[in-house]
Specification:
The structure is a homodimer. Chain A is α/β, with parallel strands linked by helices and about 350 residues long. The first copy, chain A, folds into two domains: about 120 residues, Aspartate Aminotransferase, domain 1; about 210 residues, Aspartate Aminotransferase, domain 2, CATH 3.40.640. Chain A contains twelve helices and twelve strands. In chain A, strands 2-8-7-6-5-3-4 form a seven-stranded mixed β-sheet, sandwiched between helices. In chain A, strands 9-12-11 form a three-stranded antiparallel β-sheet, covered by helices on one side. In chain A, strand 3, helix 5 and strand 4 form a beta-alpha-beta unit. In chain A, helix 4 packs across helix 8 and helix 10 runs parallel beside helix 12. The radius of gyration of chain A is 20 Å and the shape is globular. At the A-B interface, helix 1, helix 2, helix 4, helix 5 and helix 8 of A face helix 1, helix 2, helix 4, helix 5 and helix 8 of B.
Chain lengths: ~350, ~350
């Protein structure tokens, strides 16, 4: 229902209705001007032609340096979504199953279903602070399991996995010969220390997907990347050649500028979202909602006993606030997801409306 | 071998070697400055966020106006390649076959194979002026045929289908309930009058894919579109949501500017490529190559009796000229494809080297 809510919100806006949009992880801040200027300079320099489906060498090398891998282990994608789609498609199109802990980002499940792959959902719960039960994971992993997807920090809970649990997941995956795809798109702006899947081996045994959207406020630019073994990178590149061909080079140059300014941009974003997370936590706690306090931008995933979040979300949209129902993230009817991605005053107004509507 | 040649050419260039690249349909001219400025203005105006997976309303409406359809029949894609991939994926992923006349654009066959769809190739030949044999098409179309792909004007021959043949193909498709996907990406800059698949019915019974790359020298911007019935448009939009999400809005605004300046830009491009096609035709004819004179940009597909075009292409690349072997377009070992997409003096040099190498 996540995408339907968004299209409905866009439609209401096009009809002139004012909607506070807390339904997507799309930051309200503008893309930093240095990044915009870098794109413009690159366009004017003529970087407007077809290019390599691997991505530009200069960007792959910079990303490789950031993550301590080789450039041959990096492919540039139109958003981290394509990094995830292409990896799942190539790994699962001929059968097998994928284990997805819930609550999950809606796209994982929709992607698997789009080519008929079997998904096995592994439920985690608020009362366990969203920890994966390793025994359950072990018994769910069978001979047809090709992949485990981690989202760390997690969307929608903004929870960072503790090291012990992550160690345990990697151990199970290695023992059973299953690949982990770790979506770490919120990792670089996390408030808490986040261990990366790449910390486990230098040889890209597992897979990292990441993007520029969240760290650099570049959601609409559609640029991300995948780090994996060279064979998968080569196969994704072949898929890129027959689908979108390449991310525009001027967008890759804009992303490169972002990486060069990483420290400055990421700290400002972190500080802003920490402040918003604190505000939301205070208001929601006071109103009796239950949740884990965010370890990272942008989300809170509160629970209210007895809530029907689909009904609640639609009613709230009519009152001018868009959030996402918990059912979009798995079996979480009593939860809903708030994205703290609007100007501060709007967030405050929206939180008040949410508290009011939930009474 | 088309993509391998390109990656090899890029590699040779990165090693400092000078390559005249006539292997891709990537115009040497820069994107018109008005289009670059429109993108920059849109970026600065903050159009850098997630947006609808259908594409922007203003662009869909303009495209609908150009083609005489409704905006609901239009979806914006990252290049016409994605329009084609997504259509074929949704139509053929659960089985069935697709008929592809040859010579064909490499991507059609690679796309079908990427999800295991069966392709039935229908060979056309230079001696018949590349006309489709309607009886052969009729007998090739069976109960499992889901789609016929037309590429009109054709890549690699630059031949425009004559009206009688196109009428015949449509009649067979309608009789047998098969959908035609007509890739008309060279249509707007054709030298000869080109009938569109949309001329056959107002209700989008068949499917048109098109792009901005060729008409507006925007290859590297990755923007195209599909015109089809609303149900397919809705389903492609759902696939867009889980793959790349949306074409950057500032790129859509750049494309819109292109459409506004269509007359001016397209006539300049047509004139330039007509002149190059005449030059190439004269030089190649004089040297004994056989081919049909181009009806459209950008290609010539000459034949030399007894030629092994794969060997020839690799040797030519070592001499600094990249072209594409005929085998990349089907069973055409004696042909190769020249893209007239380099500055005039380079084309002249390259043609001389080609003539020399073929002796």
């Amino acid at each position: 229902m996540l995408y339907e809510i968004n299209e409905k919100a866009l439609k209401l806006e096009s009809e002139g209705k004012k909607i506070i949009r807390l339904n997507l992880g799309d930051p309200d801040m503008a893309t930093p001007p240095e990044i915009v200027e870098a794109a413009y300079a690159s366009m004017k320099a003529g970087n407007t032609k077809y290019s390599s489906s691997y991505g530009e060498k200069r960007l792959r090398e910079k990303i490789a340096e950031v993550h301590g891998v080789k450039a041959e282990n990096v492919v540039i994608t139109p958003g981290s979504k394509w990094a995830i789609f292409s990896t799942m498609f190539l790994t699962l199109k001929n059968g097998g199953n994928v284990i997805i802990p819930t609550p999950y980002w809606t796209a994982y499940d929709l992607i698997a279903k789009s080519f008929g792959a079997q998904t096995k959902l592994l439920k985690t719960e608020l009362k366990d602070e969203w920890k994966i039960d390793l025994d359950k994971l072990d018994s769910l992993t069978d001979k047809d399991t090709k992949m485990i997807i981690l989202n760390n920090p997690n969307n929608p809970t903004s929870k960072v996995m503790d090291t012990e649990t992550l160690d345990g997941v990697v151990e199970i995956a290695n023992k059973k010969g299953v690949t982990i795809l770790s979506d770490e798109v919120y990792g670089a702006i996390s408030f808490a220390k986040t261990k990366s899947i790449l910390d486990y081996d230098g040889g890209c045994k597992h897979i990292l997907s990441n993007g520029f959207s969240k760290t650099f406020t570049m959601t609409g630019w559609r640029i991300g990347y995948l780090i994996a073994n060279k064979m998968l990178i080569d196969n994704i590149t072949k898929l890129n050649q027959i689908t979108f061909n390449n991310v525009p080079v001027f967008i890759q140059d804009a992303a490169l500028k972002g990486l060069e300014l990483h420290q400055k941009i990421a700290s400002a974003i972190k500080a802003k979202y920490k402040q918003r997370a604190d505000l939301a936590s205070a208001k929601l706690s006071a109103a009796g909602f239950k949740f884990t306090k965010p370890d990272a931008p942008f989300y809170v995933f509160p629970k209210l006993d007895g809530l029907d979040s689909e009904k609640f979300t639609l009613e709230l949209l009519d009152k001018g606030v868009a959030v996402a129902p918990g059912t979009s993230f798995g079996d979480y009817r009593e939860h809903f997801r708030i994205s703290l991605t609007a100007p501060d005053d709007q967030i405050e107004t929206a939180l008040d409306k949410i508290v009011e509507a939930a009474k």
